[in-house]
Every structure is written in structure tokens, then in C-alpha cells.
Structure to design on (1264 residues):
């Protein structure tokens, strides 16, 4: 990419009807953006929903000019301000968003968002005593594999404090006390996290969150369940899988809804097993599936590639 | 294998205790057999069950001599009878079995069987209107991939008569009539099949067989279910899988017990799918999984590699 | 889809630059088409190639009106001709194509095509003695799984005539004679097939086709190779895989180019194997992979979902 | 397992001939051992090699008595020494081994070993700059997933010292200096490791070890290669896989021999990929495959489940 510029991504969700792609791509072209990739999906071409994910590249100059032409940020910059600074200013980005809302989104009654390459999200990880998913996510963050910042690890047990702190992430011990119970723990977590995080990951948290907590946390919650859902929902799936004699075991990452183990599935994985493997060995295999499935689900979410379509997901 | 001889296979199922392998392998050594492969499994080394599958090679001469030495078939053969003929005679094989029962099996209270390379089993295939599993099994039989003879195709619809007859297999139309219903159909199938077949395959039969039928058919019944059991047991699994938004779909071959879709699982397979695929396309993918999973399950069964251990299987 | 109409698909391949999507989607919107699904890919956003596959739905009325408005087919239809007939006429479709060429394709120097739902392609299958891929493809055609018509089976051996003719497909025995050799056989096949088929499938043909044949056949040629290419290119891959002790075996469907086993890969599959399996058993497993991989590759090709990008493919 | 006792494992490799299993199982029975699991394999029943892996459970008392009966350790223990102590003494174990050698192994000219449950092996890990496999193995050791002790991490770069030391494992920086080159580095590593380790793991070491080093290190060396060997042997496999347009990428763990990337394969894994993934994203996926394949290969090796049969492995 020879010339300087910025990468953004546009997500759209609206009722399907003709002309959406023409309107969106026309807007981006006028704004000087080159579409790098684009995926769309209609749940039903007549009367269904339309989903779009577009990645675009906008040259530095184009953004500045486009916005100036509209006059929308003219007052905000003096002659000595470089276009680079314009873009970085919240104002410039906000202007592009306002134009999209006015020129395209209103007409089609879209839910939409534009996210720029440097808008990293804040992740909270909730754990219990199992360390495998937490260790894996912290390692991936350190390597730069996740386009996000882990800002908090919260646990009902103190065991994994060392893991979090070694990675430079604040650890919060929020026990489920006899007095107050889970409701008390949820209240404490809401104090810590509500408004402070963009996504919550249950990395084997082993506690059931209430519908009230989910409503108030203000961020999507992704859970890893250690079975190939909907098989073996609930507790102790490896033991039940072994008793059942299944030939493949799996793990499922899903958005959490109030109904237990029932939210929209983001990613799943399976591995072949056989009768020789003890329950402990199935857990060995299972842990490897779990951490990879959870990490991929989180990466897909952070990449804005997961769109919820009723009880299921569309993954672009 | 330079010298002429015979391949047999010995299956053992008994309470686990020390000395079983020593006794079995000592017996085979004395009988002049070379063990080609052997697998064993203990569900629990103290107090569990012991399962063994051994393939052995017996030189022609060894069998004849070994048996003669025991005197057990001395009377049965004249001087002009070759040892080859001896072996082929039911008597010679029977003698080896009697010796095994007397010298080994009684001591350990074994369930066991010896099967010789040329003892092919008789298979009945029950179908409804879906042809994919039937066509596949008939093609495999024709190629010699299945160590069995398909002796009957039975259906509640006449549609697949042509497929069966083109493969030279008798087709029986056993409709589920208003009068008599499923009970009448089962009675007719018992007339046709009981005592005449060694294994029954439900190649998408789409009818529920009663416990009474299963008890009286006198042969194991293998079903293909078009989901990754225990997920989506019951009807219409592809539609439900799609609504659920699962990321992998599968098929399960299992022995049939009275409880629907709940018998011991023999084999399973899965494939990755995504939101773009319609229910029809999932069925496309599903049919491919079904025919391969069913064929493998049947081949494993015919190879005597599947042993039922309570509600699950051990597959050697 | 309440109202009557037609499904088409537009494929585009051109140098990437801004405005392509806007131009294409604007054209389709003006023509009254609703985009059902659309995928695009840029090999490199600056200076790379742009690939697009769009499925659209065009109401009957829209097509007729749109075309009439342009005047392009006014002469071609009398007052009594229904718009349905208009569409079916080659003229109407041609008109839409001409407009696309004039209004969009020329500007971006596109390679492109529009294919309508009812434009089925003609497939020739070349085989040798292995029947598994042929049987599978003929069965899928009969079921309607392939959006194509198999118009010829050609073989250098007479063995599979029965299979072809039972499916109602003409069989041509084109032996490789001592006199003339492969060059003679190719000449005969060119007589039979050139200009008569839209795609050629090598369903284990076991002969090497010359670059001259590939140039003159005038249709893409898809081969199934019984290994996970580029591993074990050339002959006898299962034996070599077994000697090598690989833990997974596979099959590869690829477009044929002059260099042996080296053309762009369309689809691959693998299965886990182990040391217990003989070379014959690996072939058993391999045949199942081969027929599924080949069928999927052909289905993807017929769906226009495979685009060649240099030495590799983009599969939408 | 109600009664106290000891688990051991017997590995046998010899020319195949009748009576081996009878002799081995008879010996174990006489010694009071119960066979927990047993797998055997004959590369060819006439004239091939025979491989056996047996896990057995020996009650405390049986071992002591059996050995005393032989008189072989009578002198070594006073009356006050518990049988537990007897077993732990090298003498008692040695005695059982001597008996096996004298009574069974000599007769069949076996290569064999008996390993007791508590005989943990010493592992050295060689790395370069990539941390994923190292971090994973150290984490698995800490969890107790590996039945071994990592005693050294050696690298030609200093970067991963912190990882090793945080896990309590000595780190040795052995650079490849201009003077001395790889030969000098190998000499230094031989000083550090020869005789001190039981297995060497190349966890993306990125240097080629000489045949001389392999001969003198005195321990098997396991490498992870980041491709589905034999495809893409050599450098930069992900880039080449992407250029080739393969639809699955993989990793291969193998024993190292002098010929590069050509030793017996222990384990392989693959994942589906598509054209949308950049070379960096393929590496993301590849790293996950690599660490799991390498960990499984090492676990199989430590479990004595891998037997080398010429250029390939038998994995029980």
C-alpha cells in the first residue's frame, strides 16, 4: 500500500431491499475509499435481513478533502494542521459517520458502525480455577494476536492472580460469599466492569450469570462450553461424553443469553477420541480444543466478523 | 504368507482377572496359530470387563494335526481326506471351538466366538425413500469392500426396488398399512428376516422399530442417524442444526435399542458448515457424511471390531 | 420469493481500483435486480486483481421493462409476446449483457460473465478402470445434485460402459492403441468433445493429457489426484504414503495444466489413518475421500465459485 | 485399584514368530502381574517384525514374593525392610528385568524395555526465537500433562531466557558464532546435554543438526515441522502453501535423522484455510497446529507408544 491512509470497517444490519449495496458502495466511492473486501448475506432475499461487512482503505488526503468539501469540519482545523491530525481527531471520524448516517443509513433504517484500525477494544476475562484458556488468551495478547487490550481478569478464586499479574493485567478477586451470594458477586463485577469493557470473556468461569447482570454489563459476553453443543449442555460434559461413547468430543464458544448454554454459537471444534482414553485424557484433549475455539471466537468477534441473526450467528 | 493356511479371529468378553491373555495365547500357540494382531481392553483393571480381539493365522497342517492329536476328529476323516478338506468341514472347526471352550473359556466364564475368514454374514438393508445409503452399500458390496452378502432389501415404499434388483438383491415391499400399522409391518419383516440374517442395517428407514421386533429379529440392528448424536435426536436434525447455527454437522451410526436414537454409538463423522448453506445444502453435505459413517460402522461390525460395553462401544 | 423472476449470477475479474463495486451494484440496481449474495476479493488493494461473484434476483417485469427502456430489444418482440418469453429469448439476455459491457465492463476492462439459472453446462467424464468417482458423479447427476448434464463418458478401457449406459449417458471407448498412442487417442477425443462440452472431469483417467490437447479442448479440465498435493505427486501415492508413515491421507481436485499434478487446487480432503491399515485399506479410505473431493470441486466449479488467480484458486 | 501396587510397561521389538505373546503373557502371569492393556502389531506375519506394548499392574506383594522366590534379591534385604522399599530399590526392578531377559527375551532375541510408572524422563528443549511451542510445553509440564521433567532450554538466541526461567528451567544460550559456527554450537550442546537428557525436542529450533550431533547426543530428537510433510519440506512452508493455494495447512512432528525433514513421522495435524487468509494469518493458524501436534507427539513418545519401524512409526 504505497500511499499513507487508514483502514476502516463498516458493518450494516437492516431489512433487505434493493439498492443497499449500490448506496453503500456509492458513498464509499465518493468518500475516496477503496473497498478491500466485502461480504454480505441476506437471510431471505424477500423480507429477510441484510448483513454487510466491508473493509475499506482511505487515503489520508481523501478523508481530509472529502470532509472539507462537506464543510463539516472546516471550522475545526486551522491552516497549519496536517490532514493526518485531522483524521486522528475524533471530529473527522465523527464527520464521516454523520455523513453516512444522513446519506445512507437513515434511508434504509440501518443498524451500523464504522470502526477504524486503531480503535482497540477492552476485554475482561472471567475465570474460576482452570487456567488453560486464561493463559492462552494472555499469551495471545502479548504476541499481538488479539486486536484488543485485556484490561481485567476477574475470578471467584484467588488462584490465578499470578497469571494475570505476570501479564500486567489487574486481577480482581470477587468471591461468591455466603452472604450476598452470586447476586453480590455480580454487583461487585458490575461496579468493576460496566462501562469499562467492550467484551467479556468467560474463560471457564463456572458460575451462571443472571439475566439482570447480562442486561446491565453493557457488553457482549462470550462463553466457552466444553462440549459440542447442543449435546451435553450443563455440567460435566466430558464424563457424560465418555459414558455415551461418543467418537468425537468438542467445545463451543457462544454468546451468553439468560437461558443456560443456549446463546448464538460463534465457533465449534471437535477431535476424534476412543474408548482407551480415560476421562482425564478426554479433558486433556478437551482443554486443547477449548482454548483454540475460544481464542478463535474472540478473534472473530474483535474482527467484527460475527453478526447475530436471531438465535444464530452469521460469521463472515 | 508362504505356506497355505487359514485366518481366524477370536473375540473374548469376560470379567477381568489375571491370566487371561496367558491362557488364550498359550492355547493358540499350542494349536499352531501365529497371532497376526491382537487388541485388548479392560474397562477397569480391578473388577471391570476384559475384551480381546485376536487375528491369527493357522497353517493347514497345524490345524489338522492339532485336532488329530486331540483325537477329537479322528473318527470323522478317512485316510484319503486331505487336511484342507478337514478344515473346511464343519467338524474340524467345531473341534477347535470345543477345545477352546473346554480348555480356556470355561475357566474364565467367557463370552467368545471364533470366526473363520470365509464365514460371511448375511445383511438385510431396510430403507424408506432416501437412496443414498442403499446405493452406497450395494456398490461397496459389488466391489467387495464389505465382507458380507446383502441378502435382502426391505422397504415401506416401492421406490427403490430398481436399485436392489439391479444389484441382484431381492427386494421386499413391506408397507405400513392403515390396517395392522407398524405392528403388521414388523410381523411381516420378522417372517422374512428372523433367522435369515446376521445383521440388519437401517439405511434411513424412517420408521421406529418396537422393542418386541428388536428382541425377536435375532440380529443386531445398526441405524444411521443424520445428526451428531446426542445433539438433535429425533426428527428433522438438519433444519434444527441450521436454526441452532451450529458450525459443524454430523451423522451417527449406532446399534438400535428400544429407546429412540440412544443405542451404543459405533461411528460418527462431522463436517464444517456455514450460514451461507441452505437447509438443502446441509442435506447435501449430510448425505455424504451419512453414507460414509454408515458404511464404516457396518465394516467395523463385520470385522468384529465393535464390542458393546454397556451403553457404549469399544472399537478395536 | 413471492413474485416471479429470474436468478442470475455475475462474475467479474479485473485490475483493482476504486469504484468497481459502486458501478456494478449501481448497474444492478438500475436494472431492477436485488442482490442475493455477493463476495469479492482483492489479491492486493493496490495494484492487485479484483474478483467478484454476485447472485441477483430479477423480477420478470423489471427485466422486460429495463430492456425496453433501453430500446435494445424493442424490435425483437411483438405486442403479444409475454415478458416471460422475452426473458427466455436469447435476445433479452443478450441485451442485458450488452448493456453491462457498455456501461460497466469497458470502463474497468473487466473479464466477466452473466450466467442465468437455467443455463446448464455439459460435462464429459474421462475414466479408466476405477469406477468409484464415475459411479458417484452419475448418481449425483441423477439425484439433481449437480447443476449440469453429463453428456459423455470416455474411457481407454471398455469396462465401465455398463455404468454409463445404465445412467443414460453415451459411452465412448477410445483406446490408447499401439499405433497412434496417446496422440491418436487425444485426436479422437478432440473430435468427440471439442466444442461439445463445457467442462471435462478426469475421474481417475490415469493417462497424461498433452498441453496441445488442453489448449484445443476449449474447456477447463478438472482432475482428482489421490494424494494431498503437493505431497506424493505422480504415481502410486497410497503406497508411498504408507511407506512414509504419514498419519493423514488425502485427495486433491485441481485444474489440469501441462505440468503434471501442478494446476490450481480447487478442493482437498484428508482422513486420519494408522499403521494397522494395509495399502488396500488405505485405498478404501482414499476412494471415499476422492469421490467426495471431486464431487465438491465439480459442484463449486459449476456454481461459478472458483476463480483462478495465477497458480491458485479463490473459492467464494 | 484397591490394593497397593505398581504400574509398569513392557515394550518388545523382535522378529515375528509364533509363541511370543504366549511367552510374554505367561511370564507376566507368573510374576503376578495383571495386564491392563496390550497392543501388538506385526509388520508381516511371515518374516516381519513383531511389536508389543503392554501395561501391567503388579501388586506390591507379588513383586516382592516373585523376586524372593527367585532368590535374586534375597541378600539385598533385611527382615525389617518393607516390600515397598524393596520395589523402590533398583535391585528389585533389576531382578525382574534380569528374569525377563533370561526367561523370555533371549529366546526370541528381543529388543525390549520395562519402564516403571515413576521413571520420569529428562527433556531438553531447543528453541530459536519463536515462543509458541516452548510456552506451551512449559505450561503443560507445570500442569503435569507431560510425564517428564524439562531439564534444559537451549537457544541460539537469548530472547526466551525469561520464559524458561519463569518456569524454573535452566536456560542455556548457545549462539552460532562466526567462529566455530554450527559445529561449535553443537559441541557446546553436546557438553551440556549428552548423557543428561532422555529426549531432545526441537521446538522451532530453526537450525540444522549434523548427523554427527545426532549420533553423539544419545537420545532421540523430535522436531516440529510447520507443514504437512512431505509437502513443503524445507524453509518457509506457509508462504509456499499460500502460493500453491492448498486448502489445508498442517504441521508434522517427526524424529530427526540426518536427511532434512525426512525422519519417521510421529503425529500430524491439519486445518482448513482459504484464500482470504494472509500469510500472517496462516502462521496464526499454523502456530496452533504446531504446538498441539508437537505436544501430542512428545506425550506419545513419553508414553512409549511410538515404535520406529524402518522409515515410519507404529503408534499404539
Amino acid at each position: 500500500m504505497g500511499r499513507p491512509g487508514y483502514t476502516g470497517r463498516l458493518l450494516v444490519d437492516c431489512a433487505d431491499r434493493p439498492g443497499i449495496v449500490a448506496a453503500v458502495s456509492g458513498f464509499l466511492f465518493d468518500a475516496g475509499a477503496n473497498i478491500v473486501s466485502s461480504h454480505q448475506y441476506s437471510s431471505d432475499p424477500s423480507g429477510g435481513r441484510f448483513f454487510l461487512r466491508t473493509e475499506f482503505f482511505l487515503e489520508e488526503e481523501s478523508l481530509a478533502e472529502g470532509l472539507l468539501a462537506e464543510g463539516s469540519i472546516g471550522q475545526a482545523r486551522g491552516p497549519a494542521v496536517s490532514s493526518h491530525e485531522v483524521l486522528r481527531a475524533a471530529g473527522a471520524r465523527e464527520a464521516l459517520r454523520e455523513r453516512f448516517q444522513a446519506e445512507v443509513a437513515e434511508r434504509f433504517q440501518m443498524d451500523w458502525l464504522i470502526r477504524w484500525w486503531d480503535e482497540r477494544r477492552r476485554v475482561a476475562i472471567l475465570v474460576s480455577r482452570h487456567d488453560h484458556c486464561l493463559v492462552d488468551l494472555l499469551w495471545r495478547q502479548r504476541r499481538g494476536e488479539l486486536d484488543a487490550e485485556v484490561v481485567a481478569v476477574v475470578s471467584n478464586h484467588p488462584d490465578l492472580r499470578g497469571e494475570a499479574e505476570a501479564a500486567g493485567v489487574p486481577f480482581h478477586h470477587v468471591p461468591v460469599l455466603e452472604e450476598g451470594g452470586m447476586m453480590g458477586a455480580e454487583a461487585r463485577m458490575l461496579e468493576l466492569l460496566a462501562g469499562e469493557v467492550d467484551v467479556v470473556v468467560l474463560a471457564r468461569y463456572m458460575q451462571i450469570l443472571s439475566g439482570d447482570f447480562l442486561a446491565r454489563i453493557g457488553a457482549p459476553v462470550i462463553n466457552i462450553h466444553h462440549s459440542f453443543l447442543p449435546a451435553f449442555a450443563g455440567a460435566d460434559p466430558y464424563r457424560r461424553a465418555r459414558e455415551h461413547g461418543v467418537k468425537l468430543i468438542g467445545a463451543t464458544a457462544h454468546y451468553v443469553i439468560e437461558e443456560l448454554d443456549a446463546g448464538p454459537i460463534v465457533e465449534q471444534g471437535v477431535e476424534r477420541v476412543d474408548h482407551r482414553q480415560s476421562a482425564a485424557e478426554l479433558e486433556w484433549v478437551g482443554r486443547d480444543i477449548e482454548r483454540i475455539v475460544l481464542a478463535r471466537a474472540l478473534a472473530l468477534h474483535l474482527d467484527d466478523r460475527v453478526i447475530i441473526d436471531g438465535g444464530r450467528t452469521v460469521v463472515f
User: Anything to note?
Assistant: The longest helix of chain A spans residues 279-302.
